[in-house]
Design goal:
This protein has three helices and twelve strands. The chain is of the alpha+beta class and 171 residues long. It has one domain: Roll (Pnp Oxidase, Chain A). It starts with a helix and ends in a 15-residue tail after the last strand. It binds flavin mononucleotide.
Amino acid sequence: MTSKLNKILDTIVSGVVVVTTSVHGNPFGMTASWVTKISSNPHMIAVSISPKCFTHNKLKESKSMGINVMSWDGLKIAQHFGTKTGKHIDKFEGMQFSHSALNNPVLNKGTLAFMDCNIVEYLQAGDHTLYLAEVVEGYFGENEDPLVYYRKKYFELRENLVCMSIDEIEA
Ligand SMILES: Cc1cc2nc3c(=O)[nH]c(=O)nc-3n(C[C@H](O)[C@H](O)[C@H](O)COP(=O)(O)O)c2cc1C
């Protein structure tokens, strides 16, 4: 039953982000796909993170996070941050990045956008923690094709695929 429900929840299509933060000048980060917009005034997002992730407590400590929204070109970076733990290695070694105004690592390559966020609340949600954060600044990255995650696989989304904007659909 659990594995069936896992598969059913996995039918929700999502983007992929690398959540970053800094504690005592050291960068930390992990990949997340359980992320969504939750408010536009103020601009807010929510990210669901397992306490098993090393980044989990770093976010509680720093109270801020960077959201690097990944592009198709950033697939290997997303995989790197999503399969290794910062408990044992420095995941930023060899990575090109700068720091945001809130001191969160901004990835220089493989992103659609970056959001600089203050964590305003966190709630226990089953076996995860839901971080609610206010987006105080944002920048576009160098890429435009999003990295899409669906049923544990990565997909590329291109403009020439069949798609329809919500303004084109008549009631
Ligand atoms: C595509 C992808 C999406 C992921 N989404 C999440 C997520 O939304 N929440 C979460 O807790 N872990 C998620 N993970 C797993 C963490 O990124 C992974 O456990 C990571 O190694 C944790 O790193 P850390 O121990 O340095 O924090 C995801 C991994 C991948 C590859």
